[in-house]
TrEMBL record:
Location of the Peptidase C45 hydrolase domain: 117-344
The protein's name: Peptidase C45 acyl-coenzyme A--6-aminopenicillanic acid acyl-transferase
Upper classification of the organism: Bacteria, Pseudomonadati, Pseudomonadota, Gammaproteobacteria, Oceanospirillales
Species in which this protein is naturally found: Billgrantia sulfidoxydans
Family annotation (InterPro entries): C45_proenzyme-like, Peptidase_C45, Peptidase_C45_hydrolase
Pfam families per record: AAT
């Protein structure tokens, strides 16, 4: 099942956190309204939770955000004001993983690759097709902070992206019942994207911590990369092997200081093995590397329908039908992000954003 996607355009946001949020809310008001409707349905499908109950759960995270990243609450207030919705609705949207969606994982596949002095970072983001039209590309130039690009969902403050210091981050969902003290996943991702350097980006996961398990693939333009299996305790770390880090939707770091239990679906391991094989073949070929060749890897269909590039699968229960909604390839050394909206195999049309 294929759907025509709307053209993805860059949304320019500048100023204070509140000003950035207000413009985000104003420009994407209708997409935000749809996102709220989508997650109201998802919460019901996954855990039988009504939106009013989800709002109550979200309020428990406000104090932790106020302690670890108070400025982002100003931005969420701005989004709510611009979109003419309640602040708690925007808070709920940004805490959606902690509220209920750690009970379910998508099929996201991510990798970092260091080749000829160029640091690459890439992933497919797989989720329910309901959110396909609510994907946004935000170019944020905040007062006194590094410019950044975030590809994510309307009404949310961050997800996958890079900043002008060459720091980039990808995300893999982890299904787990663990939730504790720390920043919600998407708040932590945005704080990483506002970091001035790699140590401060790492500190978000290692010192402030993250409420619930996920995998953050973190890299910079100088060739540093690490997989962080974040959680309320000390994260597990995955270091590059042959310049490569790969991850799907299960925990596998060795000697994790604070192990937690995850409940991955059966396709996570085969996708990880396939990703490793494709990247090692790419290195062995020693051909020129560019965005197109990495999008080819993200377009792989071996093991379909549970492949790296995921399409509609009618054999899955309705609440579990995940599809690739966008693909991102980042050249961190050159501060360039390229995104394909929808499945990477269906179109070579892409949006490319460079940060000076």
């Amino acid at each position: 099942m294929s759907r025509q996607t709307r053209p993805l355009a860059i949304t320019e946001l500048t100023g204070s956190h509140h000003e950035i949020g207000a413009e985000h809310g104003r420009i994407h008001r209708h997409l935000i309204e749809r996102s709220l409707q989508v997650y109201a349905q998802l919460f019901h499908d996954f855990v039988g939770l009504r939106w009013a109950e989800a709002r109550d759960r979200a309020c428990h995270f406000e104090a932790q955000i106020a302690q670890g990243f108070p400025e982002i609450l100003e931005e969420m207030n701005g989004i709510a004001w611009g979109a003419d919705v309640d602040f708690i609705d925007i808070l709920t949207l940004n805490c959606r993983s902690e509220i209920a969606l750690t009970q379910a994982d998508g099929g996201c596949s991510a990798f970092s690759l260091l080749r000829h002095g160029q640091q690459w970072l890439a992933q497919n983001w797989d989720w329910r097709h309901d959110q396909l039209d609510n994907v946004v590309a935000l170019h944020i130039q905040g007062d006194g902070r590094p410019a950044l690009v975030s590809i994510g969902e309307a009404g949310m403050v961050g997800k996958v992206g890079l900043n002008a210091r060459g720091i980039g981050v990808c995300l893999n969902a982890i299904r787990s019942q663990t939730c504790g003290a720390g920043l919600p996943i998407h708040i932590a991702l945005r704080k990483i994207l506002e970091s001035e350097d790699m140590p401060s980006a790492l500190a978000v996961a290692t010192h402030q911590r993250v409420c619930s398990p996920a995998h953050f693939l973190l890299a910079d333009g100088d060739g540093q990369a690490v997989g962080l299996e974040v959680q309320p305790g000390e994260p597990g770390r995955i270091l590059p092997r042959g310049g490569i880090v790969t991850h799907t939707n299960h925990l596998y770091a060795d000697n994790t200081p604070c192990p937690v239990r995850d409940f991955p679906r059966v396709d996570s391991w085969p996708r990880l093995c396939r990703l490793d094989a494709l990247l090692h073949d790419e290195l062995a070929a020693d051909a020129d590397l560019d965005e197109a060749s990495l999008f080819d890897i993200l377009s792989d269909h071996q093991g379909a329908p549970l492949s790296i590039c995921r399409h509609f699968n009618p054999d899955q229960p309705a609440e579990e039908r995940m599809e690739t909604l966008f693909s991102v390839v980042m050249n961190l050394s050159e501060r360039r992000l390229t995104v394909r909206h929808g499945k990477p195999c269906e179109s070579a049309d892409s949006l490319s954003i460079a940060l000076g």
